[in-house]
Write a structure and sequence with these properties.
about 140 residues; 2 domains; Arc Repressor Mutant, subunit A; single chain; about 75% helix
Length: about 140
């Protein structure tokens, strides 16, 4: 039975990376025994086929490059992983805010509008102020 679980797990992992929690849910939904699934997940982690912390870093980087806020990213990671240990530096958050302004913001240069735009997306006020300052300097 464990071989069929491993086989199905490898089939899923060949298409995309999964957090251990996500993969466990998929395998249980397929109807496999919970104890066998736990053993297979432990095996996959031990052999390095699943690495939650590395995958969390990759997901974090991908969302930051798309201009998503740390709040949004933590929410997504919590949904996928069941927990989130992601930490964000001021610079990472600032770069994400600037990306959002450059490529998704289409209104004028009004400070209130930019604050509303970025705060709605979950950015902190200190980052919003710095992003506004840099965005206005770029536009001049």
């Amino acid at each position: 039975m464990k071989n069929s679980i491993k086989s199905y797990a490898f089939k899923l992992l060949s298409k995309r990376d999964y957090f251990s929690n996500e993969l466990k849910k998929k395998l249980l939904a397929k109807g496999f025994d919970e104890n066998d699934v736990e053993d297979v997940i432990a095996y996959l982690i031990k052999e390095g086929y699943i690495n939650d912390s590395q995958l969390e870093e990759r997901v974090k980087e991908r969302y930051l490059q798309k201009g998503k806020s740390p709040l949004y990213i933590k929410k997504k990671l919590f949904i996928k992983r069941g927990e989130s240990n992601a930490e964000f530096s001021f610079e990472e958050e600032l770069e994400a805010a600037l990306y959002a302004l450059r490529f998704k913001y289409r209104k004028g240069k009004d400070f209130k509008e930019i604050v509303k735009f970025l705060s709605y997306r979950g950015f902190s006020y200190s980052v919003i102020e710095e992003a506004f300052r840099r965005y206005i300097q770029e536009e001049e």
